[in-house]
Amino acid sequence: MILAGLAGITALAWAYMFYLARAMRPTNMGAMEMAMGQAMPQMQAWGPVELLLTFVMWAVMMVAMMVPSAAPMILLFATINRKLRQQDRPHVATSVFLAAYLLVWTLFSVLATLVQWGLHSAALLSPMMVSTNPILGGTLLIAAGVFQWTPLKHACLAHCRAPFDFLMTDWREGNNGAFLMGLKHGVYCLGCCWFLMGLLFVAGVMNLLWVTAIALFVLVEKVVPNGPLVGRVIGAVLVAAGIALLTQGF
Q: What is the pTM of this model?
């Protein structure tokens, strides 16, 4: 039941992303205008409506990208509570944990919206939300690549790769406890992945190939046995790509 719910949430989020990406195709100008008016920010100076629509885009995108990689932790949390319920012991709904986890990424979406607003105002993004400055793009690639090798990345990734250890050592009773656990896991997950999200400004915030690649990479890092090694290799590739892009800006 929980797995089906997570799959449904993820599928709905991806469906919305595909709708926006399809509507933004240059060959689909009529639909593009409708999407830009209903769900995407206009390219002139932004107002409250444009900020809200951009925030919705980011929030939905974070659900699509991050729920799959958080599924092992969420399913384990649900399993433990199901056993507690069978034993007539205090238990909580998995939705409390999930809501707290998604709250962290919702707050991140607010920050991402403000960053995009700033880049838009500085004319550093194209109408398709792609970086127009090779120096900006190269710097983001290098920074994301270097981050893959940092102790902070390693610590956060180690937490995300060990859901059983986290639940055993940080378990808290009641709804408040579950909510705090979800927040804590969300913060670790954010610490592991936030720099990768900046790469969306390099190839396009609504470039679904780029979005899918980052989502798959995050999943591989957290689930595959050699995930940390894969992360470091990708980090080196990102640095090399960043250097190559920077040479175009000088």
A: 0.88
The residue type found at 69 is: S
In which domain, by residue range, is 131 found? 2-249
- The residue type at 249: G
CA 237 to chain centre: 20
Residues 128 and 204: beta-carbon distance below 8 Å? yes
Residues 248 and 160: their CA atoms lie apart, in Å, by 37
| Burial class of residue 17 in the structure, from the number of CB atoms within 10 Å of its CB (0-12 exposed, 13-18 middle, 19+ buried) | buried
Report the domain count for the chain. Answer: 1
- How many C-beta neighbours within 10 Å does residue 119 have? 18
CA distance 165 to 168: 5
Tokens encoding 213: 């690649």
Q: Model confidence over 86-105: pLDDT tens digits?
A: 887 878 889 999 999 999 99
Q: How far apart are CA 154 and CA 156, in angstroms?
A: 6
- In this structure, are residues 129 and 206 in contact, taking their beta carbons and an 8 Å threshold? yes
